Amino acid sequence: MDFEQVNASIAPLDARAMAAARDQWNAIAKPIGSLGRLETLVEQIAGIQGTPAVDVSRRCVAVLCADNGVVAEGVTQGGQDITTTMADCIAAGASSVCAMCRPVGIDVVAVDMGMATPGTDPRIRDRSLGRGTADIMLGPAMTRAQAEQAIGVGMDLVGQLKAEGYTLVATGEMGIGNTTTTSAMTSALLGVPPREATGKGAGLSQRDYLHKVQVVERAVEVNQPDAADPLDVLAKLGGFDIAGLVGMYVGGAVHRVPIIVDGVISTLAAYVATLLCPNCRDFMLGSHLSAEPAASLLMDRLGLDPVLHAGMHLGEGTGAVCLVPLLDMALSLYGGTTFRQTGIKAYEVDPQ
């Protein structure tokens, strides 16, 4: 895949639509800029959609499910069977993210990117690239060609979701062992010690956490990824879920769909996407800052300003979907009472 060509094909945000959205905000009977980041997010979506008539009424979270061979090294509390079980739960509407999505009308899309054992629910979208990746402590997770293929699958998924009528897409993932692959990639890409990039994931004990750090250290040492080549790092240390998420962020820019970034795994994928296609950065919406230690490191590099700082680290896209009701409330006000309607003199905009 020619990422330079893809990047060149991405048109910038629509400046006229963003200016019109800003004018609309300034006409609302409230102090200028008083909703802070929520106002700028609405303006950003206007720039993505090419109109100040922002529409996020049809929304979904795509949860990419995949298994990681590094689980064999004892870096998790559970085995790969959990990935399959949870994928079925997600497809059936029985997981954590499903419960959080119901009250705010967000559809949940489960995608098999490469689980060791396929799920049984027919609602899981099969985009599998294999029965999980290899153990990164022994060698590369996947081939470079597989990494590119997974990115392409993520890009196509966004195009398909747009064709189905979705105007806002949140990202999620489910894959036992994927905080380990994320830590290894973060360490390699940012040049930070594995300990600084590694957290306890789904509740590891202190002893198991120290073992996880050692596994990450060994994985980076064995694979010798080239930090200047993000695709090399992804192929050697990542997973099918992370690669698919990279593709979703690139696809959001290509198909002009706003994409909500979730926690540390999604944030890593978003960062890799910007390394491959810098122009896709403007199509991402930051939701929350994960409690995982790598999250703040990656957010700083990504330059996103997440709205929520709640110490969440559940996964499945649960943090990303928390942004949606805030957008709904902001948009309710965005179409609300104006200064003209109240007869109150409008605030003057500071030209600076």
Can you walk through the features of this model?
The chain is an alpha/beta fold and 352 residues long. The chain is 49% helix and 9% strand. α7 (178-190) packs across α9 (206-223), α7 packs antiparallel against α10 and α12 runs parallel beside α13 (293-302).
List the topology elements.
Blueprint: H1 3-9, H2 15-27, H3 37-49, E1 59-66, H4 81-91, H5 96-101, E2 106-114, E3 125-126, H6 144-163, E4 168-174, H7 178-190, H8 194-197, H9 206-223, H10 230-237, H11 240-255, E5 259-261, H12 264-276, E6 284-286, H13 293-302, H14 318-321, H15 323-334, H16 339-342
Parallel strand pairs: 1-2, 1-4, 2-3, 4-5, 5-6
Helix pairs in contact: 2-3, 3-15, 6-10, 6-11, 7-9, 7-10, 11-12, 12-13
How confident is the prediction overall: mean pLDDT? Answer: 96
Structural class: alpha/beta
Q: What is the helix fraction of residues, given as a range?
A: 40-55%
Show unreliable segments. none
Strand order of the largest sheet: 3-2-1-4-5-6
Short characterization:
The chain is α/β, with parallel strands linked by helices. The chain contains 16 helices and 6 strands.
Main features:
globular; alpha/beta; 16 helices; 352 residues; 9% strand; 6 strands
